[in-house]
Amino acid sequence: MIGTRLGSYEITAKLGEGGMGEVYRATDTKLKREVALKVLPPAFTEDAERLARFEREAQLLAQLHHPNIASIFGLEEGDGIRALVMELVEGPTLAERLESGALPVEEALLVAHQIAEALEEAHEKGIVHRDLKPQNVKASVDGKVKVLDFGLAKAMDSAGESPAVDLARSPAMMNSPTLTAVHGTQLGTILGTAGYMAPEQARGGAVDKRADIWAFGVVLYETLSGEALFAEGSVVDTISAVMRKPIDLDGLPAAVSPRLRELLRRCLERDPKRRLRDVGEARLLLERELAGEPAVATGEPARRAGASSGRRAAVGAAIAAAGLIGLLIGHGVRAPAPSAAGTPAIRATIPLPAGLSLEGVGAPEIALSPDGSTLAFLARGESGPQQLYVRRLDGDEARRVPDSATAEGPFFSPDGQWVAFAVGVSGLGGGVPAELRKQSLETGLTQTIAPIGDYFGGVWREDGTILFLAATDGVVWSVPASGGKPEPAVAKVLDRGEPRAVPLLWPELLPGGRALAFSTLQRAASELVVLDLDTGVITRLGVNGMSPRYLPTGHLVFGGEGGTLEAVPFDAGTRRVLGAPVALLPGVARARNRSATFAVSADGTLVYATGYLRHSRHEPMRVVHASRAGALETLPIEPDLYGRALAISPDGRRLAAAREDRGCWVIDLERGTRTKVAGEELSGAVDVVWSADGGQLAWVAEAPDTDAALFVQPSDGRSAPRALAARGSDLFLSGWMPDGRELIFRRWGAVSTIERLPVEGEPKVLWKEPGAIGTSALSPDGRLVALESDLGEGFEIFLYALGTGERTQVTGGGGRFPFWSLDGRELYFRRGTGIHAVAISLGADGKPRIGRDTKLFDWPAAFKVIAGPDGSFYGTEPVPGAATQTGLELRTGWFGEVKRLAGGGPG
Description:
Elements: E1 5-6, E2 9-18, E3 21-28, E4 33-39, H1 42-45, H2 48-61, E5 72-78, E6 81-87, H3 94-98, H4 105-124, E7 137-139, E8 145-147, H5 152-155, H6 171-174, E9 179-180, H7 186-194, H8 199-202, H9 209-225, H10 235-244, H11 258-267, H12 279-291, H13 302-322, H14 325-328, E10 347-351, E11 357-358, E12 366-368, E13 374-380, E14 387-392, E15 399-400, E16 408-412, E17 418-423, E18 435-440, E19 446-451, E20 458-460, E21 465-469, E22 476-480, E23 487-488, E24 494-495, E25 498-499, E26 504-509, E27 515-520, E28 527-532, E29 537-544, E30 546-551, E31 555-559, E32 565-571, E33 576-577, E34 582-585, E35 598-600, E36 606-608, E37 621-626, E38 632-634, E39 645-648, E40 654-658, E41 664-668, E42 673-678, E43 687-690, E44 696-701, E45 709-714, E46 722-727, E47 731-736, E48 742-747, E49 751-758, E50 764-770, E51 773-778, E52 784-790, E53 795-801, E54 807-809, E55 816-820, E56 826-831, E57 834-842, E58 848-850, E59 854-858, E60 864-867, E61 873-878, E62 887-891, H15 895-902
């Protein structure tokens, strides 16, 4: 088949074969990406009932999308051949890694943690892997893990077979989708599966998620020991060992802790009723193990308790040496004298003030002073905007910073005596002007530095100047810390030798103060870059990541895929990376814009958040109906990661809701049903709009090689999404023209544009202006675009007439997130927590007539709001308590761990 095509897929190489057929490498000629094609054998293609069952299972499996799960893109058919289209994952399998022996314990735990996260995601969707084993886990040397073939063993099952009749022919083994070598044997596949089957699975009993937990325990054991737990010369002997062989954990390396051994015992209970109930428990235990938290368990031997007491005493001395005794061991306790050996490595949790939880709107959410003594973080209560809090790590309480409502992106002065931050830029400012401010930690006074537009982070240099980003146009602004007018810090930015606007986020000052490290703004994989402040030259580092921070050890630390903290050796002098990134720490929380929630100081103190943050892209949202008077009613629709992609059909009967990480559903408001219409194609969706007849949906989502693209698809999901000509990370949809032939969208950057895109054709610029255009919305009659524009003093709402090109200002006191009523007679927008309405009509001269700005009601919890029929509204808001964070994780003396895992930096 090499050199042939199957639909849009050009087959380029054979990768291997498994229990479900041959597997090929192919190129998706439409989306320009490499995929894997699993060609189904004739036993499936010739059995209509079995094929239909397989297709139903595959559709369910395609809903799985997680950084540690290899995705299923769909099914392809042509010339009598059917194939499953899957994500192509490069690199060695865990089985191949284990051929040279056990992994180091910490690396084994990092691998196991990612496997557990993948299983947890699948189990929450009701999907059981059924064939977990090292051959089904890709584990690259840089720490990235992908679990393959979720649920395919069940999908390949044939009705009516009894797995107890013939072990060698049981569906669980014969249908194992695992790849063998191209010239390998089916026996190898069967043997490879048998050693990981749970006892109840081997007996032919009912299989649920507990079978995966058994297999997880076997894989974890083999990763730690380097030896197979159940390996005999035949399938029957292997199954016999699974059923009866004593499980001896004494042969594990001495570095495997008692807590890990207990986890293995619970996973490897032969009675599923006594087995670990949920893989999420394993994930949490692994996180505690990786964090070095002492085990706390009842009934442990006295020697364990004594050891823990000794460890606590040692930690107490270490905390004193770090100046953190007031934080961790209470009031009035005198600690032992500090050691002279340097900053000790200790770990603890910093509790947040009662009633507060971390906020995930701005970036960064936390900051540390250079000496590691003071922490700044963003938090909010049940109501009101987020605010900035500061806490000395050797003190007891956090203090709210005055005049910090709507604060974002804190950063410290070099001497640690001031903390700077932005306010009024999140769109939920309640009338707070968009400004850069600072507070003296000595006097407690807050002062304004300068008015700003938008904001994406700042740094404070030794010479008393502050550099910050006010928009995604690549312009770095400079302003005296004492106050003044911001001026461009660089006259011209040169990327690949050409002047261009490079969207930059989260600056990090490099040694010498003449260069900044950034992340680029992209929906898919943001790239780390360095900007030379003297020449304006951008250096691309060839590393994907977010929120870079430079360490004195000669490393860049940054947020990687799936919330893993990573590091790469970096020469700040030559501005080159000196190796490949490695994983340091899993499970670091991310904000709405994917920035990693961590801070690190020059003395080796690390503070980070885990889990979900409020208002982040990973926070579950519910769908709520609001009357015009503000009466709220939660709809009986399953909460999900709906985020900003929510739209109502023109007849007001259906909602289109797209997850921020995958999938789009159409919700029938009358029946309360939810139908999936798209899957993998919607990764990173931020906008979704309906055509005027309700028959089509359009959205902007991530696309391989081009970062993002505009897609269209029938709203009933009967055919696959189709990418249009508009591509780029700066795309945002405004709406669909009434005739259904064209879409209106905007680009956001140094020069923002409104553009028209024929469904069959190339985009055309209609209007452009310097600076940032925020959200925009096309009127139902296709004549006006409502948009928010930043004129340097905050966002206001304007109308742009498509026919004449004229622009008319609507608001004067600030406004964001405009959207239209279904009949186009009213324009709505948000100011602070309020929902506002303005009547709009067109005069005989074609110019808009603008009515009075009327506040309808407050909706402080709303994330995305759209108009419903009869003057009502629909919106998404966080599920109460789903993403509440009550503490931050602390590590001191962390640089030693960085050097151990990532190697030494330059010099």
